[in-house]
Amino acid sequence: MTSAGSTVTSHAASMAALRRLRRQPGLAFGVLLLAFVALVALIPALFAGQSPLTVNVEQALSPPSMAHLFGTDDVGRDVFARVVHGTRVTLSICAGALLLSALVGASLGLISGFVAGRADMALGRLVDVVLSFPPVVLGIMVTGILGPKTINLVLALGVVYMPVFFRIARAGALAEAGQTYVEAARSIGLSGPTILFRHILRNVLPLVLVQYVILFPLVLQIQAALGFLGLGVQPPTPDWGAILQQGKDYIILAPWVSAFPGLAILTTALGLMLIGRALQQKLDRR
Amino acid sequence: MVGYLVRRFAASIFTALLASGVIFVLTRSVPGDVVAQMLGQTSDPTAAQALRAFFGLDQPMYSQYLGWLGRMLSGDLGTSWTRGQPVAQMLGDAVLVTLQLSLMTVAIATAVGVPLGVLAGIYEGRWPSSLIQVFNLLGLAAPVFWVGLMLLVGVSTVFDWSPPLLYTSPRQSIVDNLSILALPIVSLGILQAAAYSQFVHQSVVSAFHQEYVRTAIAKGVPLRMVFFKHVLRNVAIPLVTFMGLILIQILGGAVIIESLFALPGLGRLLLSSIETRDYPVLQAALMIVVVVAMVVNLIVDLLYRVIDPRVRLT
Fold first, then answer.
1. What pLDDT is recorded for position B120?
2. Which domains does chain B have, with CATH numbers?
3. B229 CA to chain A: closest CA distance, Å?
4. Which of A40, A78, A110, B132 has its CA 20 to 30 A from that of A250?
């Protein structure tokens, strides 16, 4: 009975979700784009049969054809396979970096807003310093200094948007700390950390999640920019920004090498932006 | 107002000082120093020691930092370790290039983006608005350097033209200067125009929903008057803040676009000084980026207060 009941409710929920998607064509398109990109990232072999690493110098810089849908690069590697296999590399770096930002930034922000006082002041100043660098410059600085390794790239991208999560979580915690329910929780003797993690976190989490989606396309673009400057993922690993960089020198001769990874970035960013916009609107209405 | 100014100024200077410390520590964390780079494979310890002493690298970190800070505050940015030129001169030349690029981009982005956003707001719910929104989304989603590359391919196939490879300053030849800057400005401009347009569109739509606007329409004020007197005026205020944000973004975008189009601006200087571990140049270049961003923010804050009397008193 319960299982039948839950099937009915989950069916009703998915119907409601479908109706909502029909009312918001932008959101529906975004979900569709992102679902496709996610599928490519999860099972690249489903789309690209060729290896992204196999070199074939005789076929170097050949234009798009049936054999090579996106053409080949300067050492004859299949650009389609590189873009498809690069999806997981690029997106996992961005997702990881943003997760790092969100975890560290939001935790510090929550604590800062809840504890207030001197710690809040000190953290606030530190955040101001990070914010005083344009994101790309900060990314260049950190990867340039730590060296172009994937882990350093994740660190660099993670630092860039930490302040944004910090500020959102701090503002949320400040707002929530004044609410009656927090006062009530305090009066029945709940400890600070319990209130913070059980009650305030629950209310701040949606803000953080929406921000995660909104920032994702920005991180993607900075990641690609660093790859383009040669500070990101190093060859031969396929990564969208890195493929673009390899194609730069042959841009007039073989524009396809750079064109397609750029389109992949554009498609993914577009899907994320459409979803982010819908989420933000929903949050604003609340 | 004076009290606010003093507080705001003090906070900015404090942040700049902190930033200078961060910059110093970060630059010194670049693996391998200039000495190792200069000596290359020959690792003669006496020569290395002499060079270290020459560059002051043998002194403790804090005294190196204080020395740098003191000289910088007295206007002496030092000499490039790899090129031997005064840093101030190198930086000055580079800043001029980036400044020209940024200002022209802002001008074009504003001229295109603001009217587009206003149009999208007026035609909300009809096809011109949808079309503009598609432009906004695509413009924001496309990576700047990719747009630059595609423009390069586009103009070379369609017009059989490519920009000159060597930079010319506007004083030498304004035509050559503009022809090398045209593509970088357009690539940066598309993104920023899209950002502007989206922002203005949202502001116009939300202004139309304000009660005073609805009241004005309800009591029969001509729509045109409502639009110019009530809607546009209220869109202008947040636009000032947004302009500052855009300028800082352009500064970041310029770094990438400069490396693509071989412009000798701040971005290229930054990248090359990281590569050669040229601390004096790297530190000064980063410092100037931070200071410019800070000054822009400060000006925006003050302008905001001048334009909107409601915030002046808080």
1. 93
2. 87-307 (1.10.3720.10)
3. 27
4. A40
